[in-house]
């Protein structure tokens, strides 16, 4: 939407007005906010968050600028009831808020000497955006133009690409050796058979004036798809995500990429590329090559105006410097102009990159994109091709990294096949670029047919070379298919066939990174839910420390080599820290007959809560975040943790743990202790899954090696089997860890989790306990690091307190594990009473925040600010010792953290009563060397002498 001079406060959106009214009502009901309201009211009412706003101080002091207050807003709405209301867009609000921050310095900008015309942000993180704002009067230039922070990988990957392909050489050749005639197009053959087309776009009478500006872009769809991979490696997804969220786009697709190379320009004219684009079609421009001794600039212009009419009427242009860490986002409606420059005296040149990004929401935008005359590719007027890109790279879980290709497209020659073939033989596909090449898109291979496109660019398999219907699959199935392809084509490097004969196993996975189980033989997925998962290095370290310090490691060895567990029975063991664990032999009947496999897990809720803290210290949140995002879970909770130890096994049975779990209940298995002189592995099995054709293969099993830095994520539906092994000759054993993770989205899943018979804890069939964990560790801001504890739980003895007390006195709580202990959950302290749970494990401060026992995590998030919640969580950790504090002799008044990492924060908490001194005051860990660096400055500048003089000499 373009600004109009008549725009006034009377056409503000009802949405913004009601927000303002609600705020005023809140202030009137909350006296503590009254003063803040008085201070904020003028700023809120001065300028509705639209195209631009005049510097706030100017507006407040100049009555002619129609200072808007609450009464004026009401009057304007009354006067304009019959006028058509124009809805404010979210980007109007965002633009105004960021404009203010540029004006008042909250967003740091370059100095006037460096940027005389615009308030240019001096430090934008990748994806950060800030509007074009005039330095002179603080008015926004236009609603759609933005500075955008770029990932450093973008220019690195793009430069590597132009160097490796020969484009860099072509740029130099165009600049100083083989200049094209004005408006001449020529096809160049580059390294690897790539074809690019260059056009001399300069010349008097054009937008680029007297210049040698050359536009270079891919000559065909092959080149376009290749450069998309460069953008993927360059992490352009961060920018796409910011653009999509800022402008509230339905979806986004990259529709073209080109290069602009030049040595000189003079008398260019200002222009807009594609009027009518508004917030739906952008050119993201950034420099790839800049001359050493010159500033390269681009002129940007417009008529700045805010909602109440300030700043309107004056059209202005001004230059802004191009920098490699920031891009210029130009809507098709944004006026811009090539600045005057001449680098020929030093035989230098500059190269800008243009990335075209579109929200293809309707036929109008489709026509605008297809009608763009700057780029050679996509072919002008090819609306069908543009439509096939819709939503490809952002929105509905789409991205460059998850790119599934364009939609099906009927590619035809506009001339007869015979005619096109004849012309192709005459070489006209490469020489007659405007005629033959555009009329014979199929024959000249400008566009791929669907079969070629899918087999060459997005291959699935030899059996199913068709395009994935991305909208007919679940999100995790689509992600699994994309990663399967990367395993097959080598984009994800895998172990050799000698090392892993059955599966394509990734060689290196970052913490939390996931890749599906894929058969080496037929390159198909084993099942839709099974995944390799990269583990944080801290996880193994923390788990090792835990089992050593607790004495669990002694139990592992005792079970396997000392026979401390009677045959076929479970036994309760007390470990060093007083916690109780139960070991069960699985060797008699069932899936592990012929094995000495023991299952060891906590005997009660206290041990379970302690195990969660080990996972927290092991950065298990990284794994939970990946699982939740990959499977688009509603929420996640860790529902159990156990250990499996064994020295030998033979002829174990293949099985699934909990059928019906699908993507909602997982067992993450990873090795804690591996034999030094042998290999530990696990068999995985399934029916080869073809996500596209739906035609499944045969069921088979294969072994995969267990490695310390990789976990196996097994759904309750994933078939697996303990392999044959025997480590007794070398007196070794293996220990695996199982972490159970569940999306407790419905009662069906809760019953599956509660009915799992492998673990001793949680108590089998205790659905209420499982339900109390829902959403505890991932989703809606929850995590292990911010764990608020379980929900309220009524813990009762099934046999009644009197009988259970008698049984406890006879030692049955510790000896009769299946009957007494499971029937006396309260008396035997298997589960913790709510009062003890809240006071011992998740102590509450009644003056600050509701305890987890009185409200769900979601309610806490709704009823408090983020910093209040974080303050409360860290207060609890100081009080219960999870954050160690300095001894009382050294700090008698406060719980002062012993160690804080760089930037880590902790609130001021009174030692006496455990309450927070202030919500806004914090201890902060400082970077090592900061103090020393400041001391150096003080010494060098003579500040110490000044300090001493002030202290003693006055």
UniProtKB/TrEMBL annotation:
Among its keywords, does the record have Signal? Answer: yes
The source organism is: Entomoneis paludosa
Q: Which keywords does UniProt give here? A: Signal
Name the chain's protein. Uncharacterized protein
Annotated signal sequence range: 1-34
